[in-house]
Write a structure and sequence with these properties.
It is a single chain. This protein is of the alpha+beta class. It is built from 20 helices and 25 strands. The strands form three sheets. The chain has a 13-stranded antiparallel sheet with strand order 18-17-16-15-14-13-25-24-23-22-21-20-19, sandwiched between helices. Strands 1-2-6-3-5-4 form a six-stranded mixed sheet, sandwiched between helices. A six-stranded mixed sheet has the order 9-10-8-11-7-12, with helices on both faces. It is globular. The two termini are 28 Å apart.
């Protein structure tokens, strides 16, 4: 059951849909003197920037309203933002996002379809989230828009069917994130930086979303959606007096209430550098994050100076030291950057890059070198000037959007900033000195006390990273940031790759039973972005195979092998093959049970130890077939069953998880197969019919 045509079908179809690229050839260099090209142009003086004005007022119910006029286009937007403290959601992590999403899924007077129709009819937009509601439309439709927006605000019904759709969609996204190295790194980083008892240290898992109920969503809405806990920011083609009339008309009846507040212990940086490793079998790159919490509030005296310091180290500008070192000098990565984030509760520092396996340790050396260098050595005036010019330029460009002015005004209220904070922004930037930069680096750059999060191929990378850990011991984590304890399974001399495969064969039915199989048939179904997909496979001993994939009842792809030649048909385009890689791939699919061949000459099996796979201890075996193709297989220590298979090449890593084993004519077969890594989503297939030793349709294997 290791190799499935399902995975190949998906790869083939999505490969056909991939966009073709055209190589761009640079023009030949001129023979004239080009020395001037090597000199960066001098930055121009920062232009004077005039911030737009805003008007603010409070309604009687405590709602703070901010109005930003912009009459360039006849549009207006309304952003309702909650201002409550961050929440620890515990074993129901994710329930607030469920609640926010559900707000627009139905009211007492409108169904979801009616809400969508009303919004579409006036060419408007409306989005809801745990932090509020955003809506925009043409000015002439603003009253109609506000009628729908406030209906959503006052009268949500939290439909059960929509709730289950959100749960299903979230589960699908989580399934995909299990094999996404950036997502895995983000989960590990959040937990190790902030801890499980902090709002920023929580991670959604399969278990937490199963625990969420409709009552949790309703309670969140009833507790926090209060006018005295919110700001209404109105931006666009509207006068302050008209905005006030609208605010009072549509939001004045909103009843205020008590909103709870929370305090949390401040997260601390780790004692010494700590390497946190997330395994991704078959990965050819490692995702590196060097991170730790930073206590820096928005608008604090350090915020602007620290941002400029970070620009020199590895901010958005291409000339950042991390980029110049790891990309330009070493060619380890396409991009290496850093970020220092402010937050009213707790900010963070993070430096990141994706690098080749073989240079993971070298890349960490360069990261730490650059972090130490900016702490110990004053930056040059030229570097500072470039960073200040870039910062001023970005600030100026941001003002092209009226929404920026609205955000500035909102920040001023939310974080109690001085009224002229943003008006003086460029003056503060211009006043930053080389001494300020070094002070910020010494205060906020801490390579000696950080979480070094690496997600990559454990077998190729992990051991090389011990030298970066303060105690020389790596901590390992699963995809959701849960620390993995050492597998307490003793590998005695009698536990070998051969014995593990023998146990698997025995667990699914036994050698005699498997060899007696003459035919096999399976039908599995999956949902692919709302489209129903059906996969059928047929096998007949000793070497015949056929498969069919249908989407919404239409045959998309077929493969056949009659024992001598094969054929592929994709959306009507048919090809017969009798040699080459494509032929060999189809021929492989005719094998009933791959593991029966593992004892044959040419196969190489290597036991790599015991690892935790979604809560189960599994023997990890590297399988190399006679043609040199490699896969990593995980066999459950207790049941002996195959839980996971990972196949990788230079372009992608495909992970197949096998679950829900059931007996089919005394042979254990996985009724649930999840494939991830080859598409943006995880494809979860459920068996609807499986047969063994039953008659198959006549001519099903015929190649024409």
């Amino acid at each position: 059951m290791k190799k499935l045509i399902f995975a190949l079908s998906i790869i083939i179809i999505f490969g056909q849909c991939a966009k073709k690229t055209t190589e761009i050839v640079a023009p030949a260099a001129s023979k004239t003197d080009q020395a001037w090209r090597k000199m960066a142009p001098s930055p121009a003086a920062a232009r004077e920037i005039q911030l737009g004005n805003y008007t603010s007022f409070d309604l009687a119910n405590g709602l703070k309203v901010i109005v930003v006029e912009n009459h360039k286009l006849p549009r207006v937007s309304y952003q309702l933002s909650l201002n409550n403290d961050a929440l620890v959601e515990g074993d129901k992590a994710g329930y607030t996002s469920f609640a926010g999403d559900l707000l627009s899924k139905g009211t007492k007077s409108r169904s979801k379809a009616q809400i969508d129709e009303a919004i579409d009819y006036i060419g408007a937009d409306i989005n809801t989230s745990a932090s509020g509601i955003y809506a925009s439309s043409l000015k002439k439709h603003s009253d109609k828009l506000l009628d729908v927006m406030t209906d959503v605000l006052y009268n949500p019904t939290f439909p059960k069917d929509e709730f289950e759709k959100i749960r299903k969609r979230t589960a699908s996204n989580l399934a995909s994130s299990k094999t996404n190295p950036e997502a895995i790194a983000g989960n590990i980083r959040s937990i190790t930086n902030f801890g499980l008892k902090h709002p920023y240290g929580e991670v959604q898992t399969d278990e937490t979303i199963k625990n969420i109920t409709l009552d949790d969503c309703k309670n969140y809405y009833n507790t926090y959606f209060k006018p005295n806990n919110a700001y209404l920011v109105i931006v666009g083609d509207i006068k302050p007096d008209d905005a006030k009339m609208q605010a009072e008309k549509y939001f004045g009846k909103w009843e205020k209430g008590n909103v709870p507040t929370f305090k949390y212990d401040a997260p601390q940086s780790p004692s010494g550098a700590q390497v946190r490793f997330g395994n991704k079998d078959g990965a050819v790159q490692s995702v590196i994050n060097i991170s730790y919490p930073v206590d820096m509030k928005p608008g604090s005296a350090d915020a602007i100076k620290a941002n400029i310091m970070n620009s020199i180290l590895g901010g958005g500008i291409f000339s950042g030291r991390l980029m110049q070192n790891l990309r330009e000098k070493k060619a380890y990565t396409y991009g290496a950057r850093s970020n220092i984030a402010t937050d009213k509760l707790m900010g963070y520092f993070n430096a990141t890059a994706s690098v080749r396996n073989e240079v993971t340790d070298s890349s960490l050396t360069e990261f730490i070198y650059e972090m130490n260098r900016i702490v110990k050595e004053p930056v040059s005036e030229a570097d500072l000037k470039l960073a200040k010019s870039s910062t001023a330029g970005n600030f100026g460009r941001s003002l092209e959007s009226p929404q920026t002015i609205a955000n500035f005004a909102l920040n001023t209220f939310r974080y109690n900033l001085p009224k002229d904070y943003y008006n003086n922004y460029l003056k503060i930037v211009d006043a930053v000195t080389v001494t300020d930069i070094q002070m910020m680096a010494q205060k906020y750059i801490r390579p000696e006390n950080c979480n070094i999060v690496v997600v990559g191929n454990k077998d190729n990378v992990a051991d090389k990273l011990k030298k970066f850990d303060a105690d020389g011991q790596l901590d390992f984590y699963d995809a959701f940031g849960k620390k993995l304890e050492d597998a307490k399974v003793e590998l005695t001399a009698d536990i070998t790759p051969a014995s593990i495969i023998e146990n698997y064969i025995e667990a699914i039915g036994g050698m005699s039973k498997l060899k007696s199989v003459t035919t096999m048939y399976s039908e599995m179904k999956a949902d692919m972005g709302g489209r129903s997909v059906t996969f059928e496979t047929y096998k007949m001993a000793p070497n015949k195979y056929a498969s069919k994939m249908q989407m919404n009842g239409m045959v998309m792809q077929e493969q056949k092998y009659d024992g001598t030649k094969g054929s592929t048909s994709m959306m009507g385009n048919k090809k017969v093959v009798s040699e080459g890689k494509e032929f060999e791939d189809i021929k492989k699919m005719a094998v009933m049970f791959d593991q029966l061949n593992y004892s044959q000459a040419g196969y190489k099996l290597e036991l790599k130890g015991v690892e935790n796979v979604e809560g189960s201890n599994c023997y990890k075996i590297i399988v190399t077939d006679p043609k040199g193709e490699v896969s990593t297989e995980y066999y459950d220590v207790k049941s002996g069953l195959l839980n996971r298979s990972v196949q990788a090449n230079d372009k992608s890593t495909m992970t197949m998880d096998f679950k829900n084993y059931k007996s089919v004519d005394d042979i254990m077969m996985p009724y649930t197969v999840a494939i991830s890594g080859v598409m943006p989503i995880t494809l979860v297939m459920e068996a609807t019919n499986m047969t063994v030793n039953k008659e198959l349709p006549a001519g099903i294997f015929k190649v024409e």
